Amino acid sequence: MRILILARNPRLYSHRRLVEAGQKRGHEIRIVNTLRCYMNITSHRPEVRYEGKVLDGFNAVIPRIGASVTFYGLAVLRQFEMMGVYSVNESVAIGRSRDKLRSLQLLARKGIGLPVTGFAHATTETEDLIELVGGAPLVIKLLEGTHGEGVVLADSQRAAVSIIESFRRLNAHFLVQEFIEESRGADIRCFVVGGKVVAAMRRQSKEGEFRSNLHRGGSATKVKITPEERSTAVRAAKAMGLNVCGVDMLRSNHGPVVMEINSTPGLEGIEGATGADIAGAIIDFIEKNAEPNKTQTRGKG
Fold it and tell me: How confident is the model at residue 211 (pLDDT cuts 50, 70, 90)?
């Protein structure tokens, strides 16, 4: 098979592992810089071009589109879908996951456990918004934030009011969520491939930090998840329409609650913590599922 990886940095661990896993199985793997692709948008012969040549003849594409280039990256991916190339994660599904508000609304509609969440634009009832999620302490998240950026813990009513009013003055969109204190600064990432959890790790924040992101100094260990946590991760991935994703959840007093779904999850932390060959699992999934014109949305939506 010929497999294309859309990624800006070929040297990243995740991308090197995907190339390694694909070549080990006898496939031709090529990485191209998403932002250097350009398109010929026509009714009958859509093309994606790169370095003066048409990118064609590929059986599948693995989108590794960073959050900062979501708009253009999805445009390129939609073009491949229009060409009938199988995409591991479709453009519509990635778009859903990148929109924090929309993703939470979709998960809520499916009855998946979530932290109590409030959203508002320009209301004067700040204190009522705070009480809606159970009062302080609470978490305030910018909708555009990634990797733990734009996430603030307000430990008092006064701090929460001050932060919310500051975000409003900046005309920023944000969510207000209950703080799951019993998680003690730890979350669980389940890595889902093809409707199955192939690995899970527990991420623990460093002392004095409530965000457990590894690049912020958090640590990762292999964890045994419960049947309910496994089911929650699989249902969350399905609700987004993602074949490959990382589902981040907290262990709360009322069961697992999903915090976020990452459509371009890194492999280094979880492969290192669990010893699982996740890159191989992704290539195996492609081998079983990649067919011409199998992409469901065909660039729609």
Answer: low
Give the mean pLDDT of the chain.
Answer: 90
Q: Which CATH superfamily is domain 182-284 in?
A: ATP-grasp fold, B domain (3.30.470.20)
Tokens of 184: 């003690």
Domain 2-95 has CATH 3.40.50.20: yes
E strands along the chain, which residues? 2-6, 28-32, 38-40, 47-50, 53-54, 60-63, 86-87, 117-119, 138-142, 151-154, 174-178, 186-193, 196-204, 219-222, 244-252, 255-262
Write down the CATH superfamily of domain 117-179: ATP-grasp fold, A domain (3.30.1490.20)
Task: Look at residue 116 in the predicted model and tell me its pLDDT.
Answer: 93
Q: What CA–CA distance (Å, rounded) separates 287 from 270? A: 23
147: alpha, beta or left? (left if phi > 0; alpha if psi -120 to 50): left
Do 241 and 90 touch, CB atoms closer than 8 A? yes
Beta bridge partners of 154: 138
Distances in whole angstroms, Cα of residue 104 to Cα of each of 19, 86, 101: 33, 27, 5
